[in-house]
């Protein structure tokens, strides 16, 4: 095993996921999308340890230099156009896959290759977004994170995950108009079916967002019952008025803010794209799993290469890797000197976890972060969500604590009284969605998922960006 040194790496974040997508993330730097976005610079592979991703310190410095060159050379507009061009290209290529009529091997090849290009670009915009956030504050383009949010808002682009709750709001308004005085507990499928136009709109909405609530190749489909429940939740709240933001009075270069808006958009939209395409590909992936005598979920603990080696044009091999069962508990991945994926488990994994992951001080009771969505101070009970397996324990009104949120978290973010994350800035997924939902949110606390445990009582100060433990379970 390679002798890794912690000082050579920067912690990127924790996204618990099966082996299949995790291995692809490690190879982010090998994609054409990253080579184009990085102006041909050579980046290094990432290391993945039990959901924790680490990238090379040298890559962080390369992106810092790239951003500095773009800004000082007045290239913001042209670079923004380049990122949009790359984003649209990887999006279109990935979205074409579910419509392909080809054999299973050809389908898997197209799915894995286009998925890699989207995730490569996704990784790049994640890193660039973090660097831009620091750059803006360092060079006083914004006085604070709150000021940055205010200045960025006029240029922000709406994502699919922002469209979804807005459509729910519109359907709730239509229901109120059709049934004045209706209450949340009166919103049922039978009631909706008596309004044909609204019923049809719900079916269209479900078709468009069938992937909503899925991510990292896991999660259950969005359906009519969930949609009606979303509408009922809106009916149970006070009607909101949509805020409009004007670009007037902006004193900073418009191209610079448009670039930040583009980076913010693509880092979230790439997650949406992959969720949609992978969900639409489940029938073909299930077919693949059946040929290997596996369930769909079991298939996900193989790497793309292992899957394609076992289902090829000329042979069928159902033998599983020696550490396959251990992978399902915890795994790590790195790319060795020969360019081969090394999926590690057990003792080998724990050796690297000990080197890279430090345990937080047990006495810590207060954390500071970035206010991503301002609001009143909220007190409540914590539910820590690391992966989709944890969603079942989340209850309405709880304070959602996570490493960082992804599209599959959104149905539970809607139920939260406040949101706290380990990583992220004002352009992160949690920041964008929480502002759309109007839920107080503090991001970038670094160790919230280590400090706070399920049922802890905490106070979230979404004005000053402070989260305090006020009681234990």
TrEMBL record:
Alphabetized Gene3D superfamilies for the sequence: Phosphohistidine domain
Gene Ontology MF terms in the entry? ATP binding; pyruvate, water dikinase activity
Query: Membrane spanning segments where?
Result: none
Swiss-Prot/TrEMBL keywords: ATP-binding, Nucleotide-binding
Q: Which InterPro entries does the record cross-reference, listed alphabetically?
A: PEP-util_enz_mobile_dom (IPR008279), PEP_synth (IPR006319), PEP_util_AS (IPR018274), Phosphohistidine_dom_sf (IPR036637)
Start and end residues of each PEP-utilising enzyme mobile domain: 394-465
Is ATP-binding given among the entry's keywords? yes
- UniProt family annotation: Belongs to the PEP-utilizing enzyme family.
The protein here is known as PEP-utilising enzyme mobile domain-containing protein
Q: Taxonomic classification, please?
A: Bacteria, Candidatus Buchananiibacteriota
